[in-house]
Write a structure and sequence with these properties.
505 residues; alpha+beta; Arc Repressor Mutant, subunit A; BirA Bifunctional Protein, domain 2; 3 domains; three-stranded antiparallel sheet; 38% helix; 20% strand
C-alpha cells in the first residue's frame, strides 16, 4: 500500500501513537506521552505492526515499581516528614505520634531514618524527647531524596538508576511495601522504513470514521475524507467458543448409536465388586482380575446390593446355578462382593441392564462409560478412559450376528473396512473375539473386545437363558483415528494452543 493511502487507513488511536514514536520507543513512555490506556496502546501497536509500520521487540528487564505503601506515601507524604513537621522544640514521641497520626511501626521507622540523616536529636528521660537539628530543617525545606525518588515515573529500569538513586532504592527496599523490583516483559518499538516515511507524511485527524444517518441527513460528509479500511490486512485471529474436540466426538458417537436403534444405559462411576466383576462371572481368585488393576474406595468401603441377586450370582460361581455348568467350584466371598471401587469396565452397565426391570426383549443398548485402571501413562495408555460398550438381547442370535455388528462398528466409527476379528478371552463371554483395525500411521491396533455372554452371567441376572451379544470398544482409540491424534493424552489436553487448533469432526 502506498504511503498516502496507508496514512489515510490509520484509526485515531494509531495516529495518536504514531505521532510520538519519533521521541519514545518504550511501551510505558508511549502510554505517558499519549495519555492512552495500556490496552489502547497495545492494540494500536499490534495494528501498526500488521501494517509493517513498526517492529515490536520484547525484552526481559529488571524494573522498579511502586508498591502499596509507596503509592500511599506518594500522595500523603513519608512518615519521616510527618514526624519532623510534628516536632516543636523538644517534643515527646507520644505527642508526635498523636499529632502526625503515625502508627508504632511508622514511628520506629521514622526514628531510624531521621537518626541516620542526623535530622533529630533524642533525649532520654521519663519519656523520649525529640528535637529537630539543622539538617532536619534543611530536609523539611528542600525535601528528602526518598520523596524525589517516589515522584519519578514508574515502572523504571533498574539499570537506568545512577549511584545516588540506587542508594535511595536500597534504603526504601528495606522498608515494608514501598518499592519492589521484579523481572518484567518490556516492549520496545522500532519504526520500520515504511514507518519512517509515514511519519513524514501529513497525518490528517479529521477523517470520517463511519457514516451515520445524521451525517448523511445534514450532508456533513461533503468535502471531507473518509478513513480507508484495508480489508486484506492481517488481523489477529479470533477464537470463538466451541466444544472440546473429544467431547464433541463422543456426542456424535452417542447420536450415531441412537440413529442405529440403540438405547443408552448408564451406571455409577463408583461401583461394587459385584457389578464390576462378580455378576460377570469373573471368579474372585482369577488372574483376569489383575489386568483390571482397580482403584478401591477407602470410605465408604462397602455398598448396598439386592441380596436375592447376590445369592443367585453366588450360586453361579459355586455350582453353576441351574445352567448345567459346575461353576468355578469355590466358596464365594459375600462380603468382598460389596466392596466399593472405581468402575474398571463399562460392561458393569450391561450387567445392571440385564437385571433391570426396564430391559426390553428384543433390545439393543449402549453406554459411554468413564472407566479407571491403574496404568503407566504414555502416548497410548491412560489411567482413566472412556469405553463404549453394549448388548443386543434377542432370541436365536449367534456369532455371525456378532461379526456383522463388529464390522458395522468399524465402518461407522473408525471409518475403515480394514478389520480383523481374532479369538479372544473374557471370563464372561464364550465365544470371545477381539476387533482390530488398521490405522494409516499406527498400523493394526485393537479397538475392542466382544463375545456372547455365558449362561452363568445371563440366567442369574435375567432369570432365564437368552443369547446376549456383548461388545466393548476403546472409544479413545477410535477418536484418535478420527481426530488425527497420535498421543492419547491430547484427547484430554488443557493446552490452549492445541485446543484452539484441534481438529473437530
Amino acid at each position: 500500500m502506498e504511503i498516502k493511502k496507508l496514512a489515510e487507513s490509520l484509526n485515531p488511536v494509531e495516529r495518536k501513537v504514531l505521532k510520538v514514536l519519533d521521541n519514545f520507543d518504550y511501551f510505558h513512555d508511549i502510554m505517558k506521552a499519549t495519555n492512552l490506556k495500556d490496552v489502547e496502546v497495545s492494540r494500536a501497536l499490534q495494528w501498526l505492526q500488521n501494517k509493517n509500520v513498526v517492529e515490536l521487540k520484547e525484552q526481559q528487564k529488571e524494573m522498579v515499581l511502586l508498591d502499596e505503601n509507596g503509592l500511599k506515601y506518594l500522595k500523603s507524604g513519608l512518615p519521616e516528614r510527618k514526624f519532623l513537621d510534628a516536632i516543636e522544640r523538644k517534643t515527646s514521641v507520644s505527642e508526635i505520634a498523636k499529632k502526625a497520626g503515625l502508627s508504632n511501626e511508622e514511628i520506629a521507622i521514622s526514628l531510624g531514618a531521621l537518626k541516620s540523616k542526623a535530622a533529630i536529636e533524642m533525649e532520654k528521660g521519663k519519656e523520649l524527647l525529640v528535637s529537630i537539628t539543622g539538617n532536619g530543617k534543611h530536609l523539611l525545606k528542600h525535601g528528602f531524596p526518598e520523596e524525589q525518588f517516589l515522584r519519578e515515573i514508574f515502572p523504571k529500569e533498574l539499570s537506568s538508576l545512577n549511584e545516588e538513586e540506587k542508594s535511595v532504592l536500597e534504603n526504601l527496599r528495606k522498608r515494608k511495601k514501598i518499592i519492589r523490583v521484579e523481572l518484567s516483559k518490556i516492549i520496545n518499538v522500532e519504526l520500520t522504513e515504511t514507518g519512517k516515511k509515514l511519519l513524514k507524511e501529513k497525518i490528517e485527524d479529521d477523517l470520517i470514521e463511519k457514516l451515520s444517518p445524521s451525517l448523511v441527513k445534514a450532508s456533513a460528509w461533503k468535502g471531507k475524507k473518509f478513513r480507508r479500511f484495508d480489508v486484506k490486512i492481517n488481523v489477529p485471529s479470533i477464537f470463538g467458543g466451541r466444544k472440546q474436540h473429544y467431547r464433541r466426538f463422543l456426542d456424535e458417537v452417542r447420536q450415531k448409536f441412537v440413529a442405529l436403534g440403540f438405547k443408552e444405559m448408564t451406571g455409577p462411576i463408583v461401583e461394587t465388586d459385584f457389578w464390576d466383576m462378580d455378576s460377570l462371572f469373573m471368579p474372585q481368585f482369577h488372574s483376569a482380575r489383575e489386568i483390571h488393576q482397580a482403584y478401591y474406595v477407602k470410605e465408604p468401603k462397602y455398598g448396598k446390593l439386592d441380596e436375592a441377586l447376590v445369592k443367585r450370582v453366588k450360586e453361579a460361581h459355586e455350582n453353576g446355578y441351574e445352567t448345567g455348568s459346575k461353576g468355578w467350584r469355590y466358596e464365594f466371598d459375600v462380603k468382598r462382593t460389596h466392596r466399593h471401587m472405581l468402575r474398571t469396565q463399562g460392561t458393569a452397565s450391561s450387567a445392571r441392564m440385564l437385571a433391570s426391570k426396564e430391559l426390553q426383549i428384543p433390545g439393543k443398548y449402549f453406554a459411554i462409560s468413564r472407566c479407571f485402571r491403574y496404568d503407566i501413562i504414555d502416548a497410548t495408555h491412560l489411567s482413566d478412559f472412556f469405553q463404549t460398550e453394549g448388548i443386543v438381547v434377542e432370541e436365536n442370535l449367534n456369532f455371525s450376528h456378532l461379526k456383522g455388528l463388529l464390522k458395522m462398528f468399524a465402518e461407522e466409527f473408525a471409518e475403515t473396512d480394514q478389520i480383523k476379528i481374532t479369538p479372544g478371552y473374557f471370563p464372561f463371554t464364550e465365544p470371545s473375539a477381539e476387533l482390530h483395525a488398521k490405522h494409516p500411521d499406527l498400523g493394526w491396533i485393537e479397538l475392542g473386545g466382544s463375545g456372547i455372554f455365558r449362561p452363568e452371567v445371563v440366567k442369574p441376572l435375567l432369570g432365564r437363558e437368552m443369547p446376549v451379544l456383548a461388545w466393548g470398544i476403546g472409544i479413545d482409540r477410535i477418536a484418535m483415528f478420527k481426530l488425527g491424534i497420535r498421543d492419547i493424552r491430547q484427547l484430554f489436553s488443557h493446552d490452549l494452543e492445541f485446543l484452539r487448533s484441534a481438529k473437530i469432526v
